[in-house]
Design goal:
The complex is a heterodimer of chains A (274) and B (273). By secondary structure, chain A is of the alpha/beta class. Chain A is built from ten helices and twelve strands. In chain A, helix 4 crosses helix 5 and helix 4 packs parallel to helix 6. In chain B, helix 8 packs antiparallel against helix 9. Chain B is flat. In chain B, strands 1-2 form a two-stranded antiparallel sheet. Classes of the chains: A alpha/beta (274), B mainly alpha (273). The interface between A and B is large, with 39 and 33 residues.
Chain lengths: 274, 273
């Protein structure tokens, strides 16, 4: 991580149809090379924030600066949007919307084609990306033939092939089986190690524990950050996690004994018994 | 197993359509003769075969054409069951439609029937010609569709200067019809799992219209999200595709041999008349 600022949001708000508030007066700075996890429950505005960072939604109010340029109007300015999309990639939560071409190869080639790369470079880049993600064998498959985990990998490939400086990921491990989930976390860790800036929206604490270099917690009623800090501080602050609706009291199994107590899970499954 | 109502039956048929498409893609990926040939060549040669099938008039050349096309299907590892359905399915339907011609077309009597009716030789020949034409055309079209992946077929359309926007819309429509069909299936199963008695037709119709409403809503939302996903990867309203690679030597050979074989049949047929 270095001190270069990638995104600077000042007083950013967004409402759907001018009625439903998704973000309220958000101030946030994202630095190059960090793995920032936006942690929040459903409906706290995480996905909307990612679409604003990618210049797809125009903030209702506030200002957004990316790489030193004011990109608040990128959603309404195709040239500005095009400039931004060469440097920032977004992996959508629902891979089906991202895989719209007849084959995996066509989907991965779509971005580079829009960037006007020469054919040979595109073929080479697609082959390399598919190989890095271990999905070369899927190149000729139609998206409807893929499993959930494969779709996620292909969706990530469609972004990685464009070699963006920043990768935005919306609930990247949602609906994945344990193996696919572990593979994806490993892959994202490697991307971060290579210096990519990652911004990950999730409500899963173990994903945050595995990937984050910094966590920003969004409140479900506030629709803006209510806390931020390193993972070891945020993820051990139970009061904060309860207030943000990220952990809750529920039934829990210990062999034949069933009891309820306040707890949350991390990778090691540690918790206190009352 | 409760008796299926019309809604369920229709939707299960739709699910069958998904399975069929997956199976067709699997056939198109097999390492058969036609699968190895460039789709552009197949479109030209098999398109020409359909033209020839529609023009042949003598039965020996028609039988020869059909035999050639069936041989191509076999060499392309299309299962015998699928070929049999092709040869006896739709042609049988054609026979039902064309049957009156056996009696109505005037000509020398071939077979006497009750009620003063008779099958004429001319009528029998015209029905046979029609049957052979339909079967051969169907075999040629199937040889193209069953051995070519949908994506390659679209790429071939591009090569023949079909407008890119048209091809793109076709590709996306085919892509998302599966997403929507899966949703429709889930809606059906969710309803069925909560149904404790046989429902009336009125209820079924009401449910179907509400399901279609959900589907429409979902398709609108999906289209908006798909557009955002395209824009996020640099799309600015102008579709672009990779250029098709040039034809290999084997493709040129297939183009020449295929066209020559079908043209030869046509010439023989003309010479026989």
């Amino acid at each position: 991580m270095n001190d270069t600022t990638v995104f600077e949001l000042s007083g950013v708000s967004y409402s759907y149809h001018n009625r439903i508030v998704a973000l309220r007066d958000v101030d946030l700075t994202i630095r190059a090379g960090e793995a920032l996890v936006i942690l929040g429950p459903n409906g706290s505005g995480k996905s909307t924030l990612l679409k604003i960072l990618d210049g797809l939604y125009r903030p209702t109010s506030g200002r957004l600066v990316a790489f030193g340029h004011d990109i608040t109007a990128a959603a309404d300015d195709p040239e500005l949007g095009y400039w931004l999309h060469q440097r920032v990639g977004l992996v959508f939560q629902e891979p089906d919307v991202q895989l719209f071409s007849p084959t995996v190869f066509d989907d991965v080639a779509f971005g580079p084609l829009q960037l006007g790369w020469p054919s040979e470079r595109i073929r080479q880049a697609v082959a390399t990306t598919l190989d890095e993600l271990g999905i070369t064998h899927l190149a000729d498959r139609a998206p409807f033939e893929l499993s959930g985990g494969e779709k996620k990998r292909v969706a990530l490939a469609t972004v990685l092939v464009m070699d963006p400086e920043v990768i935005l990921l919306d609930e990247p491990t949602a609906n994945l089986d344990p193996r696919s989930r572990a593979q994806l976390i490993e892959l994202l860790t490697e991307l971060h190690r290579r210096g990519r800036t990652l911004v990950i929206a999730t409500h899963e604490l173990d994903l945050a524990a595995a990937l984050a270099s910094r966590i920003v917690v969004f409140g479900e009623r506030e629709h803006r950050p209510i806390a931020e800090g390193p993972p070891d501080r945020i993820l051990t602050d139970q009061k904060l996690l309860i207030a943000a609706n990220l952990v809750h009291e529920h039934l829990h199994w210990h062999g034949p004994i069933v009891h309820s107590h306040l707890h949350w899970h991390d990778a090691e499954h540690q918790h206190e018994h009352s | 197993m409760p008796r299926r109502n019309f809604v369920e039956k229709t939707l299960l048929d739709l699910a069958g359509a998904i399975e069929h498409s997956v199976y067709a893609e699997e056939l198109a990926r097999r390492s058969g003769l036609l699968q190895r040939i460039d789709p552009r060549v197949k479109v030209v040669v098999l398109g020409f075969a359909i033209l020839v099938a529609a023009s042949l008039r003598s039965w020996p050349t028609q039988v020869a054409l059909l035999t050639l096309l069936v041989a191509l299907l076999v060499a392309s590892r299309i299962p015998p069951g699928a070929i049999a359905r092709l040869l006896f399915g739709l042609p049988l339907f054609t026979l039902v439609v064309a049957a009156p011609a056996l009696i109505l077309v005037p000509g020398p009597e071939l077979l006497r029937l009750p009620f003063g009716l008779s099958v004429t030789t001319t009528g029998a020949w015209s029905v046979l010609t029609l049957l052979l034409r339909v079967t051969a055309s169907l075999a040629a079209a199937s040889a193209l569709v069953l051995t070519t992946r949908w994506a390659d077929l679209l790429a071939a359309l591009r090569a023949f200067r079909v407008p890119l926007v048209f091809v793109l819309v076709l590709a996306m429509a085919y892509r998302y019809v599966f997403v929507l069909l899966e949703l429709l299936q889930d809606l059906l199963l969710a309803r069925r799992s909560r149904l404790l008695r046989r429902d009336e037709n009125t209820e079924q119709r009401r449910w179907l219209s509400s399901a279609l409403g959900v589907l429409f809503q979902r398709s609108l939302r999906t289209s908006e999200q798909v557009y955002l996903a395209m824009a996020a990867r640099g799309y600015r309203g102008e579709p672009r595709t990779l250029r098709n690679p040039s034809l290999a030597e084997t493709d040129w050979l297939a183009l020449s041999l295929g066209s020559a074989a079908f043209a030869a049949l046509w010439l023989v047929d003309l010479a026989r008349l």
